[in-house]
Amino acid sequence: MHALVYHGAGRHSWDEVPDPSLQDDTDVIVGIDAVTICGTDLHVLRGDLPEVAPGRVLGHEAVGTVEEVGPAVRQVRPGDRVLVSCISACGSCRACRRARYGQCSGGGGWRLGHTLDGVQAEYARVPFADWSTYRLPRSVDDESAVLLADVLPTAYEVGVLNGHVGPGDVVVVVGAGPIGLATVVTARLFSPGRIVVVDPAAPRRDAAAALGADVVVGDEPDSVQELVASLTDGEGADVVVEAVGAPESFELCTRLVRAGGRVANVGVHGAPASLHLESLWGSDLTITTGLVDTGTIPTLLRLVADGRLDPTSLVTHRFGLTEIGRAYDVFARPAETGAVKVVLSR
After folding, report:
1. What is the total count of domains within the chain?
2. 252 shares a domain with 268
3. pLDDT, tens digit, 9 for 90 and up, residues 116-167
4. Residue 202 near residue 222, CB atoms below 8 Å
5. What's the whole-model pTM score?
6. Which of 288, 306, 321 delimits the end of a domain?
């Protein structure tokens, strides 16, 4: 088969590699029908995650058809159309029993495209299939489903739910990349009073406005702070979501939130960020971080099936699977290409 293989920082190629095979009784082999590219994949390619070894097949978000199942698999059968979650879960460890699948200590967590070969390939081995795949109804198409593997649950769980977004809240999202825009889409489920999106790129601000942001603004700190103050009688936002993964954006978030408010960090940080406790210590803030658990996939899947949520509003570019090199190039240059999410189909 062919797959996208990581060859060290800045290098990848669509290579012929051996077909995957069952290794554990709980594995399945999935024929890949659609994948997408995540910002974390770009971090891997930049060399930000040294634990990803050269030779690794990338990708952790896919929709496909089950080809083969291990003898212990109970929930799916060959021929089933499934969503492959970005998180693998053993289902029996202490973390999994608390639905903290991202913290699985039984061999799961973020494995695909990280410490195991991933899904940007013609076929993939998926471990712990009963807990890590979801059968799809016919009413949910591949393009909608693949965005439920990571970007929608990440924004929903780590941004919206961790931030306790509620009716009437003023919510500021710093960063209008895929995660930031998915935060806008899922925050609207809770009827916030205002959603403000901060991003330096005009195309992404336009995308945020089209997806339901009430106010969009560039990232000049002084002007952003003045705007948020004007919308909140000088108090600051109820919830601020960091969706960039940069020190300056995290520090901006802590300046935009009101006393007693919440900062939900979703961005993947490759460098230290300062926490200015000398000015924040008395502010009664709640700051959360987290890796997605994907426990909300069934809820999001029902919302999509019922027509209450449309993930395809995030898709800007479509490619064939063999065009994955071009797709990465487009996805990595959003300021020039306007890319938000790209979907590749077989």
Report:
1. 2
2. yes
3. 999 999 999 999 999 999 999 999 999 999 999 999 999 999 999 999 999 9
4. no
5. 0.94
6. 288
